[in-house]
Amino acid sequence: MNKTEEQNSCHSGRVISFTQLNNEIKEKPQPRFGGDEIRVVDAMIDIIYPSVPFPSNKIFKTLGAEYIRKMVEHHHHLLLKTNIKTLFPQHPEALKLVIDRSVDFFVEALGGGAVFTSQHGDPHLRQRHFKIPINENDREIWLAMYKKTLKELKFPKEHLEEFWNWIEPLSIRMINRRTNTNAIKRHHWHDVKTELLQVNV
């Protein structure tokens, strides 16, 4: 393997994203197959998952399990009015089981004890959702409906930043299908702060 091939191969230890690969292809166009020289395609990953800062139990102490259930149910009812409603069970009893499981996850994640893991094991969101194809656009809708939920239920403003900084990167963990090679769009706290806090003044 010559120097050029080594630099362009996974043997160099260089693992890149779809976005980086696209940029390189645009910069160095070459035949996909049957060129004059060997062409090595880099090892790559489809998503670079950001770190997820799980919140403290201060949120649970303020909200309580009843509010969290109301929040999760509200979010699901909003989702059922969107284009991703087909991702959820249509039968009421099956839908209730999905919502109950989601409530357990949120209660535990926000500091309410091991109500999810004691019944269902570790979350592993991407793995759990893999039989249901969830792409970048689905995640955008899911997150937008959470923002709407927080506004409509007047989520306590003193905990909004901590909650959003958890739910936003967490939502990326549910993506298990890609429809494009672009980087996953982020919605950082500074992007949504004004909108959310105005409603909660």
TrEMBL record:
Pfam families: Bac_globin. It comes from Sulfurimonas marina. Keywords: Heme, Iron, Metal-binding, Transport. The keyword NADP does not apply. This is Globin. One of its GO terms (molecular function) is heme binding.
